[in-house]
Design brief:
This protein has a domain at about 85-165. It has 9 helices and 10 strands. It has helices at about 45-50, 75-80, 95-110, 120-135, 150-165, 185-195, 210-215, 230-235, 240-245; strands spanning about 5-15, 15-25, 30-35, 60-65, 65, 80-85, 170, 200-205, 215-220, 225-230. The strands form 2 sheets. The chain has a 6-stranded mixed sheet with strand order 6-7-8-3-9-10, with helices on both faces. It has a 4-stranded antiparallel sheet with strand order 2-1-4-5, covered by helices on one side. The protein is globular, with a radius of gyration of 18 Å. The protein binds adenosine-5'-triphosphate. Adenosine-5'-triphosphate binds near residues 17, 19 and 39. It holds the Pfam family ABC_tran.
Length: about 250
């Protein structure tokens, strides 16, 4: 089966430093992969290479078998690559409702669906309201995004991601900086997305309880190199992972 997303020998060099070193990894729909590794391992840089924020020195990013390495971040997003942080403060002076509505509208416009003709303002509003309900943002619908507390802004990011209906969902520490009250909402949304057999989910995460609750698979990066890849139990118990963390627990890193 063609992977939904694949990196092949993906490498980036900053001066003399190789931040991501020939990383080859394939992802499939219906699977949530946690990407772990000590600070500076290259996790965010790998994400940046996949979403197009930075260009690779060599290697490829492939989406459903197609090499997308030369596409801009927005072209990659239109092709189905959804990354939560890209959407932060997209329209900070507009309300939560308007942000979601505009994102739904832009997705519908970009699509060449026959149903497009049937799209109406009513459909847009219905879908926007569904997303508000799903992300528990109904009470904040009329608030300007820039006035929201951090936790609610993170929820808006997930809401905009849902509005784009991507094939690939990329989350980089989605609960970072969130309170104990706020984090479960985001985690249950990700758990929801994971249930969709068509969704491929990548999650950079340090927190072990989150990884245990959500991950089907763990990929470990260390010094820019992929050092382990497999089901959570065996990967977490492996010597290579223990060595990478030098005896520290992942959640402590
Ligand atoms: N634009 C850049 N220029 C130079 N070096 C960079 C750049 N971006 C990242 N690096 C370096 O690449 C390495 C990997 O960084 P990266 O942020 O990807 O690690 P990480 O695994 O996401 O770490 P953390 O868990 O702390 O977020 C680090 O040594 C970092 O200093």
């Amino acid at each position: 089966m063609t992977p939904s997303l694949e990196t092949r020998d993906l490498t980036v060099r900053f001066g003399g430093h190789i931040a991501v070193n020939a990383v080859s990894c394939a992802f499939h729909p219906g699977q949530l992969t946690a990407i772990v590794g000590p600070n500076g391992a290259g996790k965010t840089t790998w994400f940046n290479l996949i979403s197009g924020q930075i260009r690779a020195t060599s290697g490829q990013v492939r989406l459903e078998g197609r090499d997308i390495s030369s596409l801009s971040p927005s072209a990659r997003a239109h092709a189905g690559l959804g990354r939560a942080f890209q959407l932060t403060n997209l329209f900070p002076a507009l309300s939560v409702f308007e942000n979601i509505r505009l994102t739904v509208q832009s997705r519908r416009k970009a699509g060449l669906s026959l149903f497009r003709m049937a799209d109406s303002r009513k459909d847009l509003i219905r879908e926007t309201e569904e997303i508000l309900t799903r992300t528990r943002l109904t009470a904040q619908a009329r608030a300007e995004v820039r006035t929201l507390p951090h936790g609610d802004q993170r929820k808006v990011e997930v809401a905009l991601l849902l509005a784009l209906r991507p094939k690939i969902f990329m989350f980089d520490e989605p609960t970072a900086g969130m309170s104990m009250d706020e984090a479960p909402v985001i985690l249950s949304l990700i758990a929801d997305i994971r249930k969709d057999p068509a969704a491929t989910v990548l999650l950079v995460e340090h927190k072990m309880d989150v990884i245990r609750a959500l991950a089907d698979r763990i990929v470990v990066l260390h010094n820019g190199t992929l050092v382990a890849d497999g089901p959570p139990g065996p990967v977490m118990a492996s010597d290579v992972v223990r060595e990478a963390y030098m005896g520290r627990e992942i959640e402590d890193v």
